[in-house]
């Protein structure tokens, strides 16, 4: 049992789970815009997410705090190195314009982690900014890049889906911020720190209403996708409703981050 828990913790701590969520969102993008499965694009995002998230999570731990490196962290470092190699491999299979835009997303990720400006913290520690940077990166990686690589023009549907994807990630992060409220530095000015937990939950509920309603305005609207989106909205509302600071870390690190995976599986099997 202990071994299973260690494997499961490694699965979460190494960012494989969150990478699967991004991978699922890329597949949802393929589905919505009728793009034939693009393996280099999907795997570029998958391995890129592992690299990006592990860089964000462990850079300060190793570079700044200089903590002793555990066995698990060494294995994560090996996984991250392999992922870097695979990101490079799939990067050169993408179209040139996709490569250029992906550099922009990488630059935002680096800005989020590293203190580029003298006497300034990294963007991750800028008051009230974290949630927007993460949401923009997710939209860019899971929606913008696949469309650019498939050479699909930016129509009204594209902008509607960008708004929906941004709202989805924003709401997911709200749940994280509610659970992290007791541990987050007060200067971060996260949404729960600024407006309180009750209003944060209300904000999440209210944002999910236009998220679903926007589906009606998509040119490829169909009842099948609308019903699946409604199920996902209800699922998210339940996660928001039951979120509190006493919840286990697995509440967000596994269940909440699995929402895009559940969404993708519903599209595939239902």
UniProtKB/TrEMBL annotation:
UniProt entry keywords in alphabetical sequence: Membrane, Transmembrane, Transmembrane helix
Taxonomy, superkingdom: Bacteria
PROSITE patterns listed in its UniProt record: PROKAR_LIPOPROTEIN (PS51257)
Transmembrane segments: 12-35, 41-61, 73-92, 98-117, 129-148, 163-182, 202-220, 226-243, 250-269
Stated name of the protein: Prenyltransferase
Taxonomic lineage: Bacteria, Pseudomonadati, Bacteroidota, Flavobacteriia, Flavobacteriales
């Amino acid at each position: 049992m202990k071994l299973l828990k260690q494997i499961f913790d490694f699965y979460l701590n190494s960012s494989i789970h969150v990478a699967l969520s991004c991978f699922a969102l890329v597949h949802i993008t393929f589905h919505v815009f009728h793009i034939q499965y693009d393996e280099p694009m999907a795997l570029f995002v998958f391995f890129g997410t592992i690299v990006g998230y592990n860089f964000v999570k462990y850079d300060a731990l190793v570079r700044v705090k200089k903590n002793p490196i555990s066995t698990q962290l060494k294995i994560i470092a090996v996984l991250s190195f392999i992922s870097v190699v695979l990101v490079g491999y799939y990067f050169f299979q993408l179209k040139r314009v996709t490569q250029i835009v992906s550099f922009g997303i990488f630059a935002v990720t680096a800005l989020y982690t590293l203190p580029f400006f003298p006497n300034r913290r990294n963007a991750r520690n800028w008051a009230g900014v974290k949630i927007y940077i993460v949401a923009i990166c997710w939209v860019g990686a899971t929606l913008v890049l696949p469309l650019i690589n498939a050479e699909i023009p930016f129509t009204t549907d594209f902008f509607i889906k960008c708004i929906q994807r941004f709202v989805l990630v924003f709401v997911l992060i709200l749940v994280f911020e509610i659970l992290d409220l007791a541990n987050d530095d007060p200067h971060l000015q996260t949404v729960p720190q600024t407006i309180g937990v009750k209003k944060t939950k209300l904000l999440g509920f209210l944002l999910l209403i236009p998220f679903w309603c926007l589906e009606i305005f998509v040119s490829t609207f169909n009842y099948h996708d609308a019903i699946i989106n409604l199920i996902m909205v209800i699922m998210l509302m339940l996660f928001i409703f039951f979120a509190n600071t006493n919840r286990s870390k697995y509440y967000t690190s596994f269940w909440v981050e699995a929402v895009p995976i559940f969404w993708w599986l519903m599209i595939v099997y239902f």
